[in-house]
Design goal:
Blueprint: H1 8-14, H2 19-28, H3 30-39, H4 45-54, H5 56-63, H6 66-71, H7 73-80, H8 85-94, H9 100-108, H10 117-132, H11 141-146, H12 152-159, H13 167-190, H14 193-201, H15 205-213, H16 215-228, H17 236-240, H18 248-257, H19 262-270, H20 276-285, H21 289-294, H22 302-307, H23 315-325, H24 332-337, H25 342-350, H26 359-378, H27 382-391, H28 399-411, H29 439-450, H30 453-459, H31 465-474, H32 481-487, H33 493-499, H34 524-531, H35 536-542, H36 550-558, H37 574-581, H38 587-590, H39 599-608, H40 615-629, H41 632-636, H42 638-641, H43 648-658, H44 663-677, H45 680-689, H46 694-698, H47 706-714, H48 720-727, H49 746-756, H50 761-767, E1 772-773, E2 776-777, H51 778-784, H52 790-796, H53 800-805, H54 811-824, H55 829-838, H56 846-857
Antiparallel strand pairs: 1-2
Helix pairs in contact: 2-3, 2-4, 2-55, 3-5, 4-5, 5-8, 7-9, 8-10, 12-13, 13-14, 13-15, 13-16, 15-16, 19-20, 23-25, 25-28, 25-29, 26-28, 27-28, 29-31, 31-33, 32-33, 33-35, 40-44, 49-50, 49-51, 50-52, 52-54, 55-56
Length: about 850
């Protein structure tokens, strides 16, 4: 089979072909489809049917497509059922991803008269020898499969292994010898000492002897095989085989008398035909629910989730389960009232943001249900909240059960108001390692997030300082908190904690649905209101708030008052100074404070060496000293504040400014120099001269002007690697975040502008070819901005091959392609063949390509 033509666009187009058309295309033009069959991650079903109709060579090619085979158990089973030696070649060369029952089906279907099997048998015997002698790691799949083969020597090799096969395997091997080898092969096997030991170990020796005595022995053996391979006697691999029917009533009855091993439970709940009534008894018996759920590839049913043991379930595991099943197999109400323990469910909820339907709808239902439950049952009853917090760590039931337990305990007087708050801790420091909410604290914050704002205010009078920090610094923002901050007075707990809002990551996880969440940062308007309080303890936190407008940050950093009143500067918060000058200090804490102008802290910053590599930081240090202390320190101790490690241009500029007669004008020039150094131009220069990652560079105080950065990328002033760092930043606007930026040519930028200006998509796409660079195209930018739809691309973009692969096809786009194929290619294999050869070089749009091919063969 020659290599295919047409490119990846043909793979996408073949998804819309009919079986008869593709079968005939295989016969007429094998080279076109060979690459698709061998390498496509998902071979279209119609093409799979065509492959099986085509026979030997094609079936072998499909079996060697490891990616497609690994993705589909149905495809593996269909290939195995052919018993083809070319399938065996693919299976036994790598073994992965084939399971024992699939190998057994393959070997059982083999034709012993086919000479091509001879080479395969040698490979299988070698695998058996390697495994049994310890030369090869892995599961004994090959052994368990070999006992069903119609090849007596292979079966005898498997039966002679020591202590690996189960009783059902041994009986199946005896039956295979009887059916395919006759008395001679049976006698040879029984005369082997190793096989005899295996027979005796499983109580099969007498049965084997009777097998040689006459036909009654054969009937007895067949009955024994049926019983051993039946539901009660099956193995985990048997249960996993979706083509094998199970008597679930008998299985559950046997499980009730003697629980099945955990491995068998895992395979049973994975079966698509596992009935709802089986999940609870099976799940309840598994000693490690975390392991059971982690190995469950299907969405978890609610009956299973509700039956699991309350201990041993990790948050990461439940996040993955919710990702797969929320809105599919279980609901938000199930999370509230069935899944347990409550602590894990609530901690999981801290990390979830369901992005798509139906999960989004159920997630909203969960949040609404939790808020209703908290309002109706807990309200502002401090004793009930105290009892809930005390019970949270060990309570085994659901969230609903936990709330009822807390209410009952409070009514019984177990949580008297005035007693110490459970797990009370001091207020965390502002700096230091990021605090990650986990365990009971994460769970309790989720409950506080669900409480009404007046209830939160009431509870703050009772909770410890760290719980207050959990809510105000790491909880979900509420505008009413600003009123509390204003009312709490200078240095008050509420205002200090509100100023710290979301300076720490709330959740650390790498799940697709529950990722490391973008920080819900303190809004710029709220930061500005807090800055206007002129409170040093508040300003200490505002230094680190990235959304605080730059003019206000400059004022807060150097202590300039924002309220009318005294002209002196506000002092730097003493606690912040003490934390930063006491090593070890993280650069994430230290770098944003370089421009405070506080002499002690500034000296520490210079000694840290971090400013040596950043002219922007050096200028910020000088500006801070000048703003807070005037020019005296810079004039009196220039070597201390402008060491030789500083950039020569920075030192020259400062010397020039100090020499000016008008200090006010000089200070304005210094401010302008700092603003320029921290602008997009300065950031691009920093990128050019530094190998540090963006997260480190960002802490130096650069202003992120996103449109300017995107424009710099388009003109080549920002390389793709740095752009990739920007796309993943918390502050990246949604319109630019999530996917790598695509560098556009001048014509492509014009095309995007034309679309934004209202020019019809058909005209723009016809005028601007769709080029793909690095797996992306310029139309992705237009799609991101809502200027095009995938259907527009399919209908009008050129060339046709790129149009099919440049963007994901949504439902309207798929209907568009299906209609085009039905109109021009259905029932015309000659047209299909022509399309596959034209596609690679055809410059027109998809409808034109299909129309041209159809007209050419008429």
């Amino acid at each position: 089979m020659a290599r295919r033509t047409g490119g990846p666009g043909i793979e996408r187009l073949l998804e819309f072909g009919g079986r008869d058309d593709l079968t005939e295309l295989l016969e007429r033009d094998a080279g076109t489809l060979a690459g698709v069959v061998r390498t496509a991650p998902e071979v279209p079903p119609a093409l799979v049917d065509a492959v099986f109709a085509a026979g030997d060579e094609w079936i072998g090619a499909l079996a060697r497509n490891s990616e497609a085979v690994a993705a589909s158990a149905a495809l593996r089973m269909r290939l195995a059922g052919t018993g083809h030696p070319l399938v065996a070649r693919a299976v036994f060369e790598s073994l992965w991803p084939w399971r024992a029952h699939e190998m057994r089906v393959l070997l059982a279907a083999a034709d012993p008269a086919d000479p091509a099997w001879k080479a395969r048998l040698g490979r299988i015997r070698k695998l058996i020898a390697e495994y049994t002698t310890g030369q090869r790691d892995g599961e004994p799949h090959t052994l368990r499969a070999a006992v069903a083969a119609p090849f007596p020597r292979l079966v005898r090799s498997a039966l002679s292994t020591d202590g690996i096969l189960g009783r059902a395997d041994v009986l199946r091997g005896l039956l295979a010898l009887h059916d395919h080898g006759g008395p001679a092969q049976l006698r040879a096997a029984l005369g082997d000492p190793a096989t005899d030991r295996e027979l005796r170990r499983h109580g099969c020796a007498d049965l084997a002897a009777r097998l040689l005595a006459g036909p009654d022995g054969a009937a007895e053996l067949r009955a024994a095989v049926a019983e051993a391979e039946g539901t009660p006697g099956g193995t985990a691999e048997d249960y996993l085989n979706p083509w094998r029917d199970l008597d679930w009533t008998a299985l559950l009855a046997a499980h009730a008398k003697r629980p099945l091993p955990p491995g068998m439970v895992e395979t049973l709940v994975e079966r698509a035909d596992c009935p709802d009534e089986a999940f609870a008894p099976l799940g309840a018996s598994h000693p490690e629910p975390d392991v059971l759920l982690a190995r469950l590839e299907r969405p978890a049913p609610p009956g299973l989730l509700g039956a699991l043991r309350a201990d041993g379930l990790r948050v990461d595991t439940l996040i993955a389960v919710v990702d797969r099943g929320l809105g599919r197999t279980f609901t938000g109400a199930d999370l509230l009232h069935r899944v347990r323990p409550a602590r894990v469910v609530l901690e999981t909820a801290q990390g979830l943001r369901a992005p798509e339907e139906p999960a989004r709808r159920e997630w909203q239902a969960f949040r609404a249900g939790l808020a209703e439950l908290v309002a109706e049952r807990l309200g502002s009853d401090a004793a009930a909240w105290r009892a809930l917090r005390a019970a949270l760590a060990e309570f085994p039931g659901s969230i609903g059960e936990l709330v009822e337990e807390a209410v009952a305990r409070a009514a019984g007087g177990e949580a008297a108001v005035g007693a110490p708050w459970p797990d009370a801790q001091e207020m965390p420091t502002l700096t230091g390692p990021w605090r990650v909410l986990k365990g009971e604290r994460a769970a309790f914050v989720e409950l506080l997030n669900a409480a009404a704002t007046p209830v939160q205010r009431q509870l703050l009078r009772h909770v410890d300082d760290q719980t207050a920090s959990d809510l105000l610094a790491l909880g979900e923002w509420r505008p009413e908190w600003l009123d509390w901050a204003r009312e709490s007075g200078p240095g008050g707990r509420e205002r200090v904690l509100v100023a710290r809002h979301q300076l720490e990551q709330q959740v650390v996880s790498r799940n697709r649905m529950a990722t490391s969440l973008p920080r819900r940062l303190l809004p710029a308007e709220a930061a500005a209101e807090l800055a206007a309080l002129d409170d040093p303890a508040v300003n200490a936190a505002l230094i680190y708030q990235p959304l605080l407008p730059r003019p206000l940050r400059d004022a807060v950093l150097t202590g300039r008052r924002l309220r009318p009143g005294p002209a002196d500067r506000l002092p730097l918060d003493a606690d912040l100074r003490a934390e930063l000058v006491d090593p070890p200090t993280s650069w994430t804490d230290l770098l944003p404070a370089f421009g405070t102008g506080d002499p002690e802290l500034t000296a520490h910053c210079i000694q840290s060496g971090w400013a040596d590599r950043s002219p922007a930081l050096q200028l910020r240090i000088v500006l801070g000293l000048w703003e807070r202390n005037g020019t005296a320190p810079l004039r009196e101790e220039p070597r201390r504040w402008l060491p030789g490690s500083f950039d020569e241009k920075v030192r020259a500029l400062v010397a020039e400014l100090l020499a000016e007669e008008d200090e006010s004008a000089a200070l304005d020039r210094l401010r302008a120099a700092v603003a320029d150094a921290e602008s997009t131009r300065g950031l691009l220069e920093r990128f050019r001269t530094s190998g540090s990652d963006f997260y480190l560079i960002q802490t130096e105080g650069f202003v992120l002007e996103w449109d300017e950065l995107y424009a710099a990328f388009q003109r080549g002033a920002l390389d793709p690697g740095r752009a990739g760092e920007l796309v993943g930043d918390d502050l990246c606007p949604e319109r630019l975040a999530g996917r790598p930026w695509v560098r556009l040519s001048r014509a492509q930028r014009t095309a995007v502008r034309d679309l934004a200006g209202g020019r019809p998509a058909a005209e723009v796409l016809a005028a601007t070819p769709l080029t793909v660079r690095g797996g992306q195209s310029w139309v992705e930018e237009a799609l991101r901005a809502g200027l095009l739809t995938p259907a527009d691309v399919v209908r009008h973009a050129r060339p046709a091959g790129a149009a099919l692969t440049a963007v994901p096809l949504d439902a309207p786009a798929r209907r568009e392609v299906a209609d085009l194929v039905r109109e021009h290619l259905a029932g015309r294999p000659d047209a299909w063949a022509l399309v596959t050869h034209l596609a690679a070089d055809f410059t027109g749009a998809l409808p034109e390509l299909l129309r041209t091919a159809a007209q050419a063969v008429e």
